[in-house]
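To close the chapter, one final illustration. This time we ask the reader to focus less on the individual chains and more on the assembly as a whole: which components sit near each other, and how the overall shape emerges from the parts.
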Amino acid sequence: MKTSSSWIKAYVPDLDVSAKEYADAMTMSGTKVETTEIFDETLENIVIGKILKIDKHPDADKLVICKVDVGDEELQIVTGAQNVFEGAVVPVVKVGGRVAGNHHDGKIEGGMKIKKGKLRGVESFGMMCSIGELGSDSNMFPDADEDGIYILPEDAKVGEDAVEYLGLHDYVTEYEITSNRVDCYSVIGIAREAAATFRKPFCPPAIIKTGNDEKASDYIEVDVQDSELCPRFTARVVKNIKIAPSPAWMQQRLRSVGIRPINNLVDITNYVMEEYGQPMHAYDWDTVAGHKIIVKRANDNEKFVTLDGKERELDHDMLMICDGEKPIGIAGIMGGENSMITDDVKTVLFEAACFDGTNVRLSSKRLGMRTDASGKFEKGLDPNTAIVAVNRACELVEALGAGEVVGGVVDVYPVKKEGLTIPFEPDKYNELLGTDISADQMIKYFEAVDLKYDKDKNEIFVPSWRQDVKCMNDLAEEVARFYGYDKIPETLPGGAGEGRLSRKLRIEEIASDTAESFGFSHCMCYSFESPKVFDRLLLPEDAAERKTVEISNPLGEDFSIMRTIPLNGMLTSLANNYNHRNKEAYLYEIANIYLPKALPLTELPDERTQLTLGMYGGEDFFYMKAVAERFFEKIGIKNGITYDPSCERPYLHPGRKANILINGELAGYIGEVHPEVLDTYEIGERAVICVIDLPVIVDKASFDRKYTAFAKFPSVLRDISLVVPAAVLNGGIEEIIVKKGGKYLENVELFDIYEGEQIKEGYKSMAYTLSFRASDRTLEDADVSPLMDKIIEGLKTLGIELRS
Amino acid sequence: MKERLEAIKEQTLKAIEGSKTLEELNDIRVSVLGKKGSVTEVLKGMKDLSSEERPKVGQFVNETRAKLEEALSGRKTDIERNLREKRLAKEIIDVTLPAKKVKAGHPHPNSIALKEVERIFIGMGYEVAEGPEVEYDYYNFEALNIPANHPAKDEQDTFYINNDILLRTQTSSVQIHVMEGGHVPIRMIAPGRVFRSDEVDATHSPCFHQIEGLVVDKGITMSDLKGTLTAFAKEMFGEDIKTKFRPHHFPFTEPSAEMDVSCFKCGGKGCRFCKGEGWIEILGCGMVHPHVFEMCGIDPDEYTGFAFGVGLERIALLKYEIDDMRLLYENDVRFLSQF
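The assembled structure is written out below.
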C-alpha cells in the first residue's frame, strides 16, 4: 500500500512533520513504513520558462540556441532537443540547480548539479528538462514527450516553481499492511491512523448527495443469486458522459501512488479505489443486455474473454457478473471485453460491490490472474464501504463535469453487516500490558480511530470496517500502540521454572560433542530429497526405505519425498567437499528421518532422529568404530554392543559393513560406502559412514557413574597365539574367551593378527593377551590354568588351534 | 694425628674443588672416606690413643668427615647442575615450527547460535521441548487461530502431504502441544526445523529452523514479554544492545509485536549492514491470543502468556556475517571449519 504525503494531508490538514518523523511514528503505531521516496529530493531551482526565440547554432547542426524567459531574467540555453519551438512553456533548471538524473541513465544517486556550460563554443545558462530529468517518466506524465523536453500546458505561469506546478513537492510512503488491517488498504484508512498517531484532527471527505430527478432503478435491475459470495451489490448510473482528462490535482494524486492517469472516468474509479480501498467497475450501460445485472456462479468449463483480450476457463466456484444474456465480468477480478468502456460511451453503470474475499482469492489463484481489484477484494472488504464509494464516485463525476448522475442507487444488501460492541475494561488492558494508563486516556486513543465509547453502557463500539477488533486483547492492542510500545515498562516474569534439556536433547548434545572431539564437523542437510536416491543407494525395488511420505506440492522432484535414510544428504555433502578439492571431510548430522506408519498417510509418520557420520580422506572403518563406541561409552552403554556383518546394506562395501546391535537390538550400522555408490556420487576416495538410530539409544542410555576401587591384587597375564580359519571373526573368538574365562577374566586384548607365510592356506594367526584377576587374593597358576584349558577347548569348536 | 687429619682435609677439599666429573668425585670419596680410604686409615690408629684423648680426637674425626661429606655433596650438586645445563642447551627446539595437526570438528553456525539461545533461556528457567516436523494442519494453523482459507495460510507457502497433514511452517505448533499437555505454568522454548516452499537462493531456504518460546502463568504481562526478550537480546548480542518493539500482527498473539535490535555493527547509527536503519529485525512476539488458550483448554480469564518465534538462520547469518544462506546447507568443510 502506498500513499503520498499530499494525499494524506488532504484529510489531515494539520499534519506537519518530516518524511522521517512520519515514517518512524507510523511504524511505531502499527502502520509499518517500508520505504519513503521523496520526489523533490534532488530537484533544485527549477522554474517554469517560456522559449522566446530559437536560433541555429553556428557550429552544430543538431543544436539550437534558445532565449528563455524565466520570469526574472532571460537565459540563453543551448539544447539538442528536437521538440522545442518558440512560445513553448518548459521546465528550466537554472545554473546551480539540480535535477534527478540525465536523459540516458535516468535517476542518479544524489541528482545532477547544473553548471554554466559551453556547447560548441556557445555559452548555455541552465537546462530545459525532460520528464526523465525530473525523476519521473512519460508513463506517469502522459503529456510529456518521451525523448524531448517536457512541453508544459500553456496555463503554467512563467517564473513559478515548476516542481510545485507538477506536484512533485511530495513524497510517497510504502507500507507493509498486515492482513488483519483491511481498512488500511485505503488512503482514508491510513489518514485516520496518521491523524491518531500525530494527535491531529481527521477530516475525511463529506460526501454530498448527487443525482438528478431520475431513478437509477429505472435504468438497471440487479439480481444477486448468490448473496453468500456477493453480500452487497450497489449500482449507480451516469449519463451524458463527457470523456476528458481529469484535473491536475487528481492526476497528481494518482501519479503520486504510481497510477497512470487515463481519463476522467477511469481516473475516478481508480481514485475511489485508492481513497476507500473499494474497487469499482464501470460498464457501458448500452451494452448491458436487458439493462439487467445478474450475479451468479459460472458453469464448469464455461469460457469467457476478459478485458485484456484473453480467454479464460471458468468453473462453478467462480462468481460472474452477467447481463440479461451473457456474462460480462468475473466478479471482483476483471470485467469482460464485451462490456468494455470505449471513448464513445454515453451512459455508464458504476458497480461498487462486496464479494467474498476467500472466493475471490481462490478464483483468482485458479485463473492465474491477480488484479488490483482482486488484490483488494481477497482481503475481505467491508460491505458498508461499497455505498460510500459509489456515492463518492458520483460526487466526483459531478465535480469534474464528467457526466450527469442519475438519482438514486440500486443497492442489493440482504444482510446488513453491523459493527459490534465490546465491554470497556481498562483494568484488564493495564493488567495485560503491565501499564498504568488512565481510562480517560484510553478512551481518547479509541475515539481517535473512530472506536466510539458509550458511557452509559460502558462499551466500545467497533465499526464494521475494523474487522480486526473483536475482543479484550484487541482493544488492549489499540491502547498499547497509541500509548507507545516503547513506553511499556520492561519486567521479568515472577516465579521460577525448571530450565533443562530433555533426555533426548541431552543425548544429542553428547553425540555432537563426541563427533566433534573425533574431528567431525556438524552439517545440515534438507529433510526432503528425490525418490531417485534409492536407486543411487542401490536399494532393491521392494526396500522398506522406498515407502516414503510424499509432498503433494513439492518444489520439484528433487525435493519431493521426506527422507527415510540419511545417507543421501551425507554422501551429497561429502561429494560436495570432494568436488571442491577438500583433501578430507569429516561430517556428522543429527536430524530426522520420516518413516510412514501406513500409506497413504493417515497419521503422522515416525520421526526418528539419527546421528549420521561420514568421512573420506584419512581414517578407516575402525576409526569410525571408535567414534561409535566412544559415544556409547559416554552415554553409559558399555556392554552388549555387537557387530553383525551379515546385514543387508546394499549401499555398503559387502566385506566392510555391519549392523550395530545393542543387546541384540538394531541400533545402527557402519561401513565403507560401496564403490558403485561412491562412483554415483563422484567421490573419488574410500568413504566410511556410520548411522546410529537415537530413539533406540535414548532408552538404553544411563548417566549413572559408580567408582570402582583400584585392584589390590596383581593380575595374571597369559598370551595365546591361535591359528584361526579365515572366516572366523574376532567377535566370535572374544565371545568364547569371555564365556569360558569366567569371573576372573578381566580383559581380552587382541595384539597381533597375521596372514601369509608360515600360516596355512585359509587360516590366519591371531594373538591375544588375557588378563585374570581376583579381587580378594593373588591368583595362582592352579586358578588360571584350568580356565585357559576351557578357553582353548571352547575355541576348538570354531576350528581354532593353538599355534605351536 | 690431628695434623694428619687436618692435612687430609685440606688436600681433599682442594681435590673436591678441582674435580670435574661425578666419577672423579666418587673416586675422591672412596679414596678418603671409603673402607680403605685415608681417613679410615687414620681412624684405625685411634685404638692407640689414651682414653682421655680418644673422645676429643673422635669428635674431630667426625667433624672432619662431616665437612668432607658436605663438600662432596655440594660439589656433586654443582656438577649435576652443570651437566643438566649442558643437556638443556642441546635440547633447544624451534618453537615456531608448526603445531601438530590434531583433528578437530566444528559445530554448525546454526548450532552455536542455538546453543547460545538455549543457554540463555535455560538459565531463565525454560524447558526445551520438541514437536513433530510432519504435522497436522490443526496444530500448525487452526489451533493457532488460522482457520481454513485464512490468507496467512497462503502467505506461508505450505508444503502439504495431504489435506490434514503438512510440513510445519512454524515451530508455533509446539505451543499447542505443550499447552494441550495442560501443565501450567509453562516456560518453554522449542527449537526445530520448519519448511516453506521458497526456492533456494541467498536469502531463502525451503528448510530452515525456528525457536519458539512460550510463557503461560497467572499475571503474565506485555512488560514481562519486553523485559524477557530484551534480556535475551542483551545476552545474545551484547550488553549495549537496545531493543525496539513495533506493533505487528500474528493471528495467534494479540497484541503482537516485532522486535528490532540496534545494529550491532554500527551501534544504531545506520550502516550498510542494517541498510541504514540502525535497527535489525530479529523476532516476532506477542501476548497469547485468548482463542488459542481456549482451544487448548486453558482459561484465558485466569491465565495470560506470551510467545515469540526467532529464526535461527537469521541470527546465525547476522551474528557471523554470512551473506549467503546456501552456505549453511552445502556443508563445505572450508565453511564449517570457521566456526
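Chain A touches chain B through 91 residues (CB under 8 Å). The radius of gyration of chain A is 42 Å. With these observations in hand, you are ready for the problems at the end of the chapter.
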